[in-house]
Amino acid sequence: MTAVRPDTVPQQAPAAQAPFPTGFLWGAATAAYQVEGAASERGRTPSIWDTFSHTPGKVVNGDTGDVAADHFHRYRDDVALMKRLGLQAYRFSVSWSRVQPTGRGPAVERGLDFYRSLVDELLLAGIKPVATLYHWDLPQELEDAGGWPERATAERFADYAAIMARALGDRVSMWTTLNEPWCSAFLGYGSGVHAPGRTEPAAALRAAHHLNLAHGRATEALRANLPAAAQTSVTLNLHQVRPLTDSAADVDAARRIDAVGNRVFTGPMLKGAYPEDLLTDTERIVNWPELIQEGDLAAIAAPIDVLGVNYYTPTIVSTPADGAGDTRNDGHGSSDHSPWPGSEHVAFHLAEGKPRTAMNWSVDPNGLHALLMDVSREHPDLPLMVTENGAAFDDAPDADGRVHDPERIAYLHGHLEAVRRAVADGADVRGYFLWSLMDNFEWGYGYGKRFGAVYVDYATQRRTPKSSALWYGDVIARHALPPEA
User: At how many degrees (to 10) do helices 365-378 and 406-424 cross?
Assistant: First the structure.
């Protein structure tokens, strides 16, 4: 059962003038493989993350998502906890191989039933369900056929999107096609620190294009099967790129990383074309004219209603005088292989004088403000939503069983203030989803990194809201930030 003491549940705060707009949506997010567990129940088959985590040496301590936070069995308690904390929305992802075990053919109804039940429980609690179709867990059988570097995977994804829209479209009104396709393409097929663990620069770029195409095809499938009022979106982990200095070399390094880190997706998705500088930077690696087939760009640019933006830390880059790069400070895991095809020489730096999280990421809320303003200026008619923002710290219960995390509260306060400032400065930001609702399987780091606002004791699966969860509940109740501590 979920452990919530009555004295720790946030109370309704006195009415206050809200600095956030009317209708601003307050939520929290998770991902299927990170929280669900039940890895082989109800017909679910392995995804690439099952295979990767069970491969010795790929995940810290040999951890897997077999049980994770056991959300599959405990979702009712978890939804009750969300309600007590005052969440207005819950962003979850669907395990593709739980619904379509081979990535092809008809759905497994037993798999769909879990998501039907979860959505029904959320609606009963007055919490808006926000469904993400893909958060990195490709069915292993599709990877065995080539994975995202193969065009056919995009078509399979569109079929899966149609299945989900028909199953849940009467109850879920907000849909996200892909979460952070940059990670899927460049960490999965470039640096190899994410599943499926391949280190092939050409495959990474091919994967990026087919993920773009998958988004476009899935958007079309959603539109064909959802009510007209439903909203479609995609979530991108846009890098807030800064040159280390104003030298021409460092400015060019920033341009390069912006191209392969951001515009490889925003170009075709939002403008209908890949940026010319990206094509030039990477033409020695992949044959773009052969890769991009007729009709692809029009499909990829299918209109969306909201753009999800994930932000954790800025990306500071330079071009070393000797040409030797260091991709190990890019915040995306240690590897001898670069996730930046065509720009392997670029060096990455941590912000000086800033606090660090347990991930060794610099804490810099100004980066979120700058990112939201940049995207807003570039795409003024596209509403935005912060779909992930949060931090890992070394949390532990005290002698009374409480979990105090003042560093996370400071992090959230600073970043929510950055969102508030962006709204005041004209950015159309419609909501904020804290990452994450609860501690979970943190990919290659296993269970050693805790991003949750709710502490999970993995041995007992006992949930304990951290002080940040209670603080966030108070923010939601106020619809405003409290005075900074």
Answer: 30
